[in-house]
Amino acid sequence: MVGSNSDWEFQVKSQIKRRYARQALEDNFRPNSATRMKELGYSQDMISLLPDELQGAFSGCGCPISDLTFAGNEVVIDLGCGAGIDGFIASKLVPSGVVISVDFTFEMLKILQNHAQGTPVNVLASDVESLPLRSGIADYAISNAVFNLTPNKDMAYREMHRILKPRGRIALCDLVCNGELPREILEDPLAHTTSLGGVVDEDKMRSALEAAGFVEIKIKNHFQFSVVVAVMITAQRKGSN
Ligand SMILES: C[S@@+](CC[C@H](N)C(=O)[O-])C[C@H]1O[C@@H](n2cnc3c(N)ncnc32)[C@H](O)[C@@H]1O
Question: Is 237 helix (H, G, I), strand (E, B) or coil?
Fold first, then answer.
């Protein structure tokens, strides 16, 4: 490989940002998003909470908030929020709480920003591998189709762990593979930007989450998603610091 690992990571992230910026600017999202969202576990009530523009910009692979219960005052962080669908729905469930929706593609955040006024949603431009947030602030971290894209999953998982309160929970929808990915994907230099090149298997994902400090890790709701499998991952930060 030419250059250092971090050069490679920088290039991968630049490609990812370019891809999602283009998608946001060209409004190039999957059609019939409401039907897709229902297939992936969103209720009609959840979908009805969304302004049309947000609903039409769904790019997830599951419904992370379906696994959480809300008292109404939680701090929820949506990591890699895109146009912000999950955080926006969560904001309706935490009227006296706070939602922080994080993404490193400004063009995606701009879509959310258009609808965030008057809601508990705060938009934050940041890489999920290095969050400008204090430790121990969040009750829940949610994420949808993002960690498969991150070149340094260990760092991203450690950051997610750091910002959670003791006993804080995660609900992530992500992609995993069963064994080797097809050759054409592994050999595609742009595979990382198409959500597939960074996909790992369940054992690797579980070990990385354990190494970051998570307990009670469950990987469930398997759903075939092209050549990979969409899953829901839930876990908890231990009870004391
Ligand atoms: C497949 S889209 C999912 C968007 C959203 N979660 C949803 O379900 O519609 C992936 C998003 O992750 C963001 N992303 C990827 N890697 C990231 C990173 N390292 N830090 C912050 N955002 C990232 C991209 O900019 C993009 O908006």
Answer: strand
Q: Would you say the CB of residue 33 lies under 6 angstroms from ligand 1?
A: no
- Cβ(209) – ligand 1 distance below 6 Å: no
Q: What whole-number distance in Å separates Cα of residue 72 and Cα of residue 41?
A: 21
197 Cα–ligand 1 center, Å: 15
From CA 8, how far away is CA 2, in angstroms rounded? 9
DSSP β-bridge partners for residue 220:
232
Q: Which atom of ligand 1 approaches the CA of 81 most closely?
A: 6
Which tens digits make up the pLDDT trace of 103-135? 999 999 999 999 999 999 999 999 999 999 999
Is the CB of residue 131 below 6 angstroms from any atom belonging to ligand 1?
no
Model's pTM, two decimal places? Answer: 0.95
Question: pLDDT (tens digit, 9 = 90+) per residue, 46-103?
Answer: 999 999 999 999 999 999 999 999 999 999 999 999 999 999 999 999 999 999 999 9
H or E, element range at 144: strand 138-144
Would the CB of 144 count as within 6 Å of ligand 1? yes
Give the list of residues 6+ apart from residue 89 with CB closer than 8 angstroms, or none.
Answer: 42, 46, 49, 50, 65
Contact 23, 29 (CB under 8 A): yes
- Helix segments in 124-176, DSSP class H: 153-163
Domains along the chain with CATH numbers: 5-237 (3.40.50.150)
Q: What gap in Å lies between CA 123 and CA 113, rounded to an integer?
A: 7
Rg of the chain in Å (alpha carbons) = 17
Q: Determine if ligand 1 sits within 6 Å of the CB of residue 128.
A: yes
